[in-house]
Specification:
2 copies of one chain form a homodimer. With 260 residues, chain A is α+β, with helices and mostly antiparallel strands. Chain A has 2 domains: 7-71, Arc Repressor Mutant, subunit A, CATH 1.10.10; 77-254, Beta-Lactamase, CATH 3.30.450. Chain A is built from 10 helices and 8 strands. Chains A and B meet through helix 2, helix 4, helix 5, helix 6 and strand 4 of A and helix 2, helix 4, helix 5, helix 6 and strand 4 of B. The first copy, chain A, binds a DNA duplex (30 and 30 nucleotides) through helix 1 and helix 4.
DNA sequence: CCCATTTGTTCGTATAACGCACGCTTTGTG
DNA sequence: CACAAAGCGTGCGTTATACGAACAAATGGG
């Protein structure tokens, strides 16, 4: 805790913030965490991390099996508070579902959270060709997905450049772009064209398409879809692209995404 | 804070618990809350509630418009940690989707959280006849929905009776059962029959069907569907009931619901 | 079986958080 | 438009909450 006892700090509850950091450590990358892992992930003293975890256990958000802690379904009710208050189930999900069936592809709605893409909603279709098991709340990479690039296109160049340099450049596939300049060039093109395509950068053989939903001044939200690379070499089938744009227009009309 | 300085209390961080109570106050029933409303909802001193809300604001979980606070999409990432870690998107959602299309009805997976039904996952279909805009994390009433009755059927009689008396009996529709005895009788029948039906108790003209997914010893999880009351008077169409039971069997096979 | 790691617990100490009070701002009503 | 009610921001004295170190026990892996 900084020695600076300013008004700003006195308005915040640092123990609550530390507890939320414990909750955030359960990021879905592993099925469970031990107390030692929680302390390492949060950078907290072991005793403090333990108090945070036991408080979550006591309130029903964690379960414990021997030394392993994992999230319980109760965390869904926190998300439900958001989804219910904003009318996602009534206004957003039906639009995604209808267009997913029409286009016969999975459709995802996403925003940016720090240096990751975070899915807001998604519609999967039966026997869809591509499905990676993502759900609302899932996080995806920012730099090698069409959703991520389209999100960064919604920010000024200098902001996008800073985010790229801060997060480092992973290499999910052999086809993944590897330099900040290449990625920034694609982001500028996305801003210019109003859509973007990735080809096998996040998953081999899979094309990603994304279009913006919200406009300048609003929190960037984008819409995207994935499909296998066709033999004919067409990366962005026009019907899919136009369908995503129509879907985006309908989502804008709901007004749900105006203040996120 | 009780004066009792036991080990149990020293293992918990009461400031963190108070902060989580602030987060829980955003239950989706209203689009936003003021500081005064948060303090009332949580029973906390106004200054404490304010510190909790400002900590959530600072960490990105709330946004503020004048005096009104509301949840941000970032809360979805907490749910995403659970859904990703448990493989809901890969293992549960496709099963629900497939059966929803086959049966041509919306299908919901639910568990109990205190005195409410909480949806774990759901599949909606295009042009479905019934959709109330619920999503994962949504809470539904416990006593007048088929999901709620099937959940209570998974508990011993005395537990069900206690929950009924503790939560009080609302009256969502004119057809809603009004006494604890009537409701308990239906719960016993659900336990005996292995399924339950409600007719216009939660929503006029709508039949609800539910079957259990998990067995004794596991946390009760149930599966349900809604459809409009048919003219022929058949409340539980055999194909829908059997389809739900098949879906439940497939969900059991995934193993995802074994430890929730 | 040994050793490294993890965990549970106690406890002295300090500071984070409490809650009250005051004054200002906003909102609603007559 | 004025006034009352409600809500909010802030300062501050006090103390209970939480901290983290240390020790011992438990666990897990080689």
């Amino acid at each position: 805790m900084p020695d600076e006892n300013t008004a700003q700090n006195r308005n915040l509850a640092s123990t609550f913030a530390k507890g939320l950091a414990v909750l955030e450590a359960f990021d879905g990358l592993s099925p469970s965490l031990t107390l030692a892992e929680i302390a390492r992930a949060t950078g907290q003293d072991r005793a403090a991390a333990r108090r945070g975890a036991l408080t979550l256990l006591d309130m029903g958000y964690l379960r414990q099996d021997d030394r392993h802690f994992s999230l319980t379904p109760k965390v869904l009710s926190i998300a439900g508070g958001f989804l219910q208050a904003r009318g996602f189930g009534r206004l957003v999900q039906p639009v995604l579902n209808r267009h997913a069936v029409t286009l016969d592809t999975e459709i995802s709605l996403a925003t940016r959270d720090s240096s990751a893409v975070m899915l807001l909603a998604q519609s999967t279709v039966t026997d869809g060709l591509v499905s990676q098991g993502f759900t609302a709340g899932s996080r995806l990479p920012l730099l090698h997905t069409s959703l991520g690039r389209m999100l960064l296109a919604g920010a000024p160049d200098e902001v996008a450049a800073r985010i790229i340099s801060q997060s480092g450049i992973p290499r999910p596939t052999d086809h993944a772009l590897t330099t900040a300049d290449e990625i920034l060039t694609r982001i500028r093109a996305a801003r210019r064209d109003g859509y973007t395509v990735t080809d096998s950068e996040f998953e081999p053989g899979i094309i990603g398409l994304a279009v913006p939903v919200t406009g300048p001044g609003a929190m960037p939200v984008v819409l995207g879809s994935s499909l296998p690379r066709g033999r004919d070499g067409v990366l962005a089938p026009d019907p899919i692209l136009k369908g995503l744009q129509r879907c985006a227009a309908e989502l804008r009309q709901t007004g749900v995404l105006d203040r996120l």
